[in-house]
Amino acid sequence: MTENTVASTMTEAELLEKFAEIPSAPISDGQDRLNVLDAGISSVWPSPGARLVGRAVTLTVGGGDNAGVHAVVDSLTEGDVLVINGQGLTHRALIGELIASRAKKRGCRGFVIDGCVRDAVDLQEINFPVFARGVTPAGPYRNGPYRIGGPVAVGNVAVSPGDLMIGDDDGVVVVARDEAEQVLAAAQAKLVAEEKQRAEIGL
């Protein structure tokens, strides 16, 4: 869709508000069903689960090591979603309730992690959306290395800082920031078409 990218006419806050009204599936359809994290990345809350809409702050860490999370968490701001390439490893949790609470206090809207987490029940109780590859009680190491910023690979999808992250019970979709308005319009059109189909079916 990059060939048809148009200049943005909406503020980021307006875009996030509009995307918050749309499920992940029509947003996926609105970008040719691309940019969807693989099914291994899902909400750690029981269904019906978390709802996540925000802008990506990216981080790459060594598998099972969360030194980078501690380095970045206190710089998060309102509307951020921390997106972590944890190498897809599931032997150690990269975050738990305490780090999530720190992030939430900063205005962070949630985490998307290609790795594991712990304290799943507590994360739901504090109403902090986390999408990850799994849950384990094993805690992380904190030795590094890590890299803050730049493109990351999460769930077999490339995510750049500032991209929009939308997550719900179906999974997580990534929307490139410079394509957001085009994708939004296509997703809204998909919703209209689906309502027409429901009416024709008699639902």
From TrEMBL:
The lineage of its organism: Bacteria, Bacillati, Actinomycetota, Actinomycetes, Micrococcales. It comes from the Bacteria. It comes from Citricoccus muralis. Transmembrane segments: none annotated. It catalyses: oxaloacetate + H(+) = pyruvate + CO2; 4-hydroxy-4-methyl-2-oxoglutarate = 2 pyruvate. The keyword Transferase applies. Homotrimer. This is Putative 4-hydroxy-4-methyl-2-oxoglutarate aldolase. Coiled coil: none annotated.
